[in-house]
Structure formats: C-alpha cells, structure tokens
Amino acid sequence: MRIPVFLADAQWALLLALGLLVLTAYRQLGRVMGRSGQPAELGPPAGSQAGKIDYTRLSGSPDGPAGQVAAFTPGGGQPALIAFVDPTCPSCEELVTALGAAREAGDLDGARVLLLTSDPPAYLQISAVFRATILEIGRPLDRDDLEPYRTTATPLLVAIDAAGVVRAAGTAVRLAEVRAYRQACELPAPPDLLPVTG
Fold first, then answer.
1. Are 110 and 17 in contact (CB under 8 A)?
2. Distance CA 154, CA 92 (A)
3. What's the rounded Cα separation, in Å, for the pair 55 and 145?
4. What is the pLDDT of residue 198?
5. Which of 40, 57, 85, 137 has a beta carbon 3.0–4.6 Å from 92's, enabling a disulfide?
6. Under DSSP, is residue 90 helix (H, G, I), strand (E, B) or coil?
7. Does domain 53-184 fall into CATH 3.40.30.10?
8. In the sheet that 166-170 helps form, which strands lie side by side, from edge to edge?
9. What is the distance between the alpha carbons of residues 35 and 32, in angstroms, rounded to a whole number?
10. pTM for the full model?
11. Residue 101, CA distances (Å) to 76, 106, 180, 181, 191 in order
12. Beta strand extents in the chain (DSSP E only)
C-alpha cells in the first residue's frame, strides 16, 4: 500500500508546525519564569505619603448619593483602609466580604473604608457580593491618581494612618488580615532618622 504524496507532505508540515509551537511555548515559559523571580511591586511602600484620589461614587454612602464626584484625601485625623478591587475577581469578592464582616463586627470603627474599582459601573451587577455590600464603592476619575498606589493587581488593601502615611499595603482576603491592616493604621509614627555624619 502506497501513501499519497500530499499526505506525506501534510504530515511533515504538521510535524514542523508542532515543533515551532513547542519552541514558542518554551520561550514564553522562559520569559514568565524569568519575570516571576523579580520582586512584586504591589502597593505603595510603607512610610510613604498616601495620595489624593478623585472618584465617582458607584454606590450610595452616608456622605452622598451614587453618581456624585467625591475625593479621598488622606490624613485629616482619620485612618483609612482603601481596597482596590474588581467585581470580576474572586479574591476581591473575598476581601469585600471580609471588610463587610469587619465593619459589622465593629473592627473598623473610626476608619474610613473605600472600595475602588476600575471596572465600569455595570460590572457591579455581576457579583452578588458587590451588589450587597454596605461599603462605599467608587471609580477613580484619573489614572494618574493611582500611580503612587502601584495598583498592578487586585485585590490590593492599603492601610493609611490618621496623618495620611501608608502603614501597610498588599494582598488580603481574610477577616484576620483585614483586622491586622486596621491595627496597622494605629502604629506610632516612625522616628525621624538621624543625619549621617562623616
């Protein structure tokens, strides 16, 4: 039995395409593995001054109705927890649930809690957790406001003390982690460094 020439050619072409696909996948895997060894830059560094964020309210709050433009201005004597979350992110839903539970338990008393999302307002309807939350949700007006916060991934929780200084920033999803971030807002101010003398 003889194999037609076009079938033999097709087999060789498929083998060559498969080889190129394997080489491409190997190169991509090498790039990803090379990047994963680099330190993550998620959130502002502790001790830095938190920046102001102008946003549109996506849900009503005691301070104003949905659709109103508002501003988060750090400091002013009130600590704050700012959570950068998206309704399409399962870990973000866990953080929103933990923040809501901490608020109801009284663990967040005295602190402002603000959820910020970059997703369109209609996306809030995707998640039952986001639809039911009692926390204020906003959408930043200007991406430049977010640069100092280094929001390269969600969820990101930032603890800011009453003077507007970042005390902790990173990923959090559990109630115990939310409580720890709230306690970080109450840490005493670090002492000024002594000047270096030579």
1. no
2. 7
3. 10
4. 45
5. 85
6. helix
7. yes
8. 69-72, 53-57, 136-140, 112-116, 80-84, 156-160, 166-170
9. 5
10. 0.71
11. 26, 9, 14, 14, 34
12. 53-57, 69-72, 80-84, 112-116, 136-140, 156-160, 166-170
d(CA 100, CA 176): 13
Element of type H or E holding 93: helix 90-104
**Is 161 in contact with 187 (CB distance < 8 Å)?**
yes
Which residue positions in the chain have pLDDT lower than 70? 1, 23, 29-41, 60-62, 64, 188-198
- Residues 166-197 have pLDDT tens digits of 998 988 889 999 899 898 888 766 555 445 55
3-state secondary structure of 166: strand
Q: How far apart are CA 198 and CA 195, in angstroms?
A: 10
Query: What pLDDT score was predicted for residue 81?
Result: 92
Q: How many residues does the chain have?
A: 198
The candidate with the shortest Cα–Cα distance to 138, out of 155, 156, 124, 153, is 124
Count CB atoms within 10 A of the CB of residue 180.
14
- In the numeric block, the tokens 């959570």 are attached to 83
Between CA 62 and CA 49 the distance in angstroms is: 26
138, 114 contact by CB (below 8 A)? yes
Angle (nearest 5°) at CA 129 between 124 and 132: 85
Instruction: Please give the single-letter amino acid code of residue 172.
Output: A
